[in-house]
Amino acid sequence: LFDQRSLAIISRIISPSAPWSSVWCAPNTQTYVVLTTSATVAASTIHNLLTGCQNIVENHIATVGDGLLSDGVFDYLSDATGVSFQAWNANNHQTTWGVLGAALAALVDCMGINGYGAASFTIYDGDNLVGLGRVGSTVSG
Questions:
Q1: Among candidate residues 137, 119, 136, 138, the one with its CA nearest the CA of residue 33
Q2: Which DSSP letter does residue 70 get?
Q3: Distance from CA of residue 50 to its chain's centroid?
Q4: Which pTM was predicted?
């Protein structure tokens, strides 16, 4: 068994309040994200934002089909919290709705295990960097 001092050190190391980085694969896809957190935001706020975005993406694919993001951008602002999610094309490649959905699944999975927070991320589809984004930015004013 660990003594109390060991547990205190471990809890500080894995605390989501400290910035962290990770590479995370979306299950059953070639999509993965590389993310770096920058600030602690209430877990429920970020989780609800990401799952809300997932619902929008799934609905779009179900009703319109997969395809390129309109104007190469997906931007969602939660009116309730003032917290936003943005993703956009990168590296002269284009992000599709399906890849965005897989990236969102990877973000939810990764943050669910490692801790929620404001973050910036890159989206890869196989070997190709196809998108950039950020989650948890607050809108002031």
A1: 119
A2: G
A3: 7
A4: 0.85
